[in-house]
């Protein structure tokens, strides 16, 4: 299509994606209190609070870390942030489909197959990383709260807590995509499994360092909770890549199939020394098989 048609289609796809997110966000705004309770409940329980955020607002006799909201516009910002997060997550099938519908017509058949595999495995991996972060945060919060000096009261800003939970879920989810990216690079022939295997020492140390920086707590439990699954996924990616390399080498040794074209060798060859032709050279003697310069067939 011409460039103007591509831009027009992109505009329509983006409009549909934004409209879906906006509709879900508006609906989620009526339940933002429940969304905040769902996000903060594990953290509150880990620090000794047996009630949800809404119940804490009504009760004043609960001895635990207190959630605070400061500023006149902060409640509105919290409601908007919680609703928008729910809108992006719940409407993800729609905006992912719009993105795929825009990109798919320009892909070859094998590229579409790789893209289907990436989406099919990428979404569960991201959800798995977010689920792990959601269950690691309470342990991290308990360790951090236990460092509070005796006699001091710990006040937890609710907006900061929501930012922390969101950031941790996104970081854990993206970290779980790293092995899938390595497999996709191997399938496209950019990275070999043998080369990946040679990186295992650096990858183990690098993943541990990343986990130490990504987790907000200083405890080794949170770091190992993030690093261990990524280590396992990395070695699974190496195993899949090595198997794919062996399969590719075996297919190359067998040659192309009946419905595949063989590779042509277009390398120029040396034709040797060319004999020079001079103007005053005597003509070659006539061939005995020719009569008047013509063969018998002619």
From TrEMBL:
Question: Do the record's keywords include Transmembrane helix?
Answer: yes
Cell membrane as a keyword?
A: yes
Query: Could you tell me which InterPro entries the record lists for this protein?
Result: TatC (IPR002033)
* Stretches for region Disordered: 275-298
Q: What is its main location?
A: membrane
> What superkingdom heads the lineage?
Bacteria
Q: Which Pfam families match?
A: TatC
Membrane topology per the entry is: Multi-pass membrane protein
List locations, semicolon-separated: Cell membrane; Membrane
Q: Which UniProt keywords apply?
A: Cell membrane, Membrane, Protein transport, Translocation, Transmembrane, Transmembrane helix, Transport
Enumerate the transmembrane spans. 14-32, 82-102, 114-134, 164-185, 197-215, 221-243
Q: Which GO terms describe its biological process?
A: intracellular protein transmembrane transport; protein transport by the Tat complex
- Care to name a GO molecular-function term for this sequence? proton motive force dependent protein transmembrane transporter activity
Bias type Basic and acidic residues, positions:
287-298
Q: Outline what the protein does.
A: Part of the twin-arginine translocation (Tat) system that transports large folded proteins containing a characteristic twin-arginine motif in their signal peptide across membranes. Together with TatB, TatC is part of a receptor directly interacting with Tat signal peptides.
Q: What is this protein called?
A: Sec-independent protein translocase protein TatC
Species:
Streptomyces broussonetiae
């Amino acid at each position: 299509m011409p460039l103007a048609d591509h831009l027009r289609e992109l505009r329509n796809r983006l409009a549909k994606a934004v409209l879906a997110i906006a509709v879900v966000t508006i609906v989620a705004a009526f339940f933002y209190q429940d969304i905040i309770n769902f996000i903060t409940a594990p953290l509150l329980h880990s620090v000794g609070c047996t009630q949800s955020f809404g119940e804490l607002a009504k009760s004043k006799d609960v001895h635990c870390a207190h959630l605070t909201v400061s500023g006149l516009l902060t409640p509105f910002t919290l409601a908007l942030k919680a609703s928008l997060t729910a809108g992006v997550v719940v409407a993800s099938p729609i905006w992912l489909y719009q993105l795929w519908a825009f990109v798919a017509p320009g892909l070859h058949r094998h590229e579409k197959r790789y893209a289907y595999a990436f989406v099919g495995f990428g979404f569960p991996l991201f959800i798995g990383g977010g689920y792990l972060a959601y269950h690691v945060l309470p342990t991290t919060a308990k360790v951090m709260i236990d460092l509070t000096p005796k006699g001091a009261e710990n006040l937890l800003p609710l907006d900061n807590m929501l930012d922390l939970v969101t950031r941790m879920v996104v970081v854990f989810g993206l970290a779980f995509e790293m092995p899938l990216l390595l497999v996709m690079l191997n399938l496209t022939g950019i990275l070999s499994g043998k080369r990946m295997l040679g990186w295992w020492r650096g990858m183990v140390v690098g993943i541990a360092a990343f986990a130490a920086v990504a987790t907000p707590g200083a405890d080794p439990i949170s770091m190992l909770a993030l690093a261990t699954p990524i280590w396992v996924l990395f070695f699974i990616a190496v195993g899949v890549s090595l198997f794919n390399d062996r399969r590719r080498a075996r297919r190359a040794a067998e040659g192309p199939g009946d419905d595949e074209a063989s590779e042509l060798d277009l390398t120029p060859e040396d034709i040797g020394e060319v004999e020079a032709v001079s103007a005053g050279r005597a003509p070659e003697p006539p061939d005995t098989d020719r009569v008047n310069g013509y063969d018998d067939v002619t």
